[in-house]
Amino acid sequence: MRITIKAGATSPTYQNYVASLVHAAASNTEMVPTEKVLKKTGIPVIFFHVGDFVYPNLGKRFLDIALRQAGLASPDSDYLTYR
Amino acid sequence: MPRQIAIILLTDDVRPLDFDITQIPIRDYCQSAVAFEKAYVHSSVNPELFERTCFTRWFVMREFVRRHVIGRFCVFDTDVMLFSSVEGFAAEFGSHAAGNWTWANAFSDVAALDLLCDYFSGVFADSALFDQLAEKIYRDIGRRQISDMRLVTSCRIKTRASSIRADFPPKATTTVSGSLKTSFIL
Question: Nearest 5°: CA angle at B56, between B50 and B59?
């Protein structure tokens, strides 16, 4: 596999990301569900966030705001506005 | 008691949060992303790591939803804020397998994610197709910008999928940057 570590892209989270890829490449085991991730009803909302290598620190601020808002947007939530 | 939705964060950095989010470390869902990375060719004004990750996220998500047998779900960019019921958002796409509106995505069939990932892999595996798309994008925007956004659009054209409905709710979501992007339905 190709992993290129660029200058400025060596934050701990980026290292975690690289380590994740190395781990995945090394473990050639069949994936078996081991946990139930959906403990709630309704359509799950998935966010993906890796590192803060583009906008250091700022990316996680956006992320946390988006996560909080998504959590508030349950049906019947007082925080929702309906047209 | 209002029905709650699961908010799932696929991340390389599980951390303490004071709100109810299911955090999933991506390290166990990277196998197909690693395979894609071998073929990735950078052609973008964005940093390579950023652009490459924009592609690999779809592969990670596919492994995740397949492993946990999640058949219907939404995927939002992390600068998208949800101000409406996610069920209402997903319902706007009707019976389509997938749809995107300003980088908020609804999937009702994982096969649509297969289609996207296979298309991404196919483009990077075929240098002639890659150059053809890059040239088309160059004519459109003045640079050979190969991004997942651009390829999602070309995938829609290739599959002759429908365009977004004209009456799609204009304020169901908004981005921090306020930008509105081209949408698609598969």
Answer: 160
Q: Are the beta carbons of B60 and A2 separated by less than 8 Å? A: no
Q: Chain A partners of B61 at a C-beta cutoff of 8 Å?
A: 46, 48
**Domain-wise residue ranges, chain B:** 8-164
- What number of other Cβ atoms are within 10 A of residue A16's Cβ? 19
Q: How far is CA A14 from CA A7, A19, B54, B92, in A?
A: 12, 8, 14, 36
Condensed to tens digits (0 to 9), the pLDDT of residues A21-50 reads 555 555 543 334 445 566 667 889 999 998
Q: How far apart are CA B101 and CA B76, in angstroms?
A: 10
Q: Which of B3, B73, B76 sits opposite A41 (nearest CB)?
A: B3
Contact A22, B21 (CB under 8 A): no
Read off the pLDDT of residues B61-108 as tens digits, 9 standing for 90 and up: 999 999 989 989 999 988 888 887 888 888 888 778 888 877 789 999
Query: With a cut of 0.90, is the ipTM above it?
Result: no
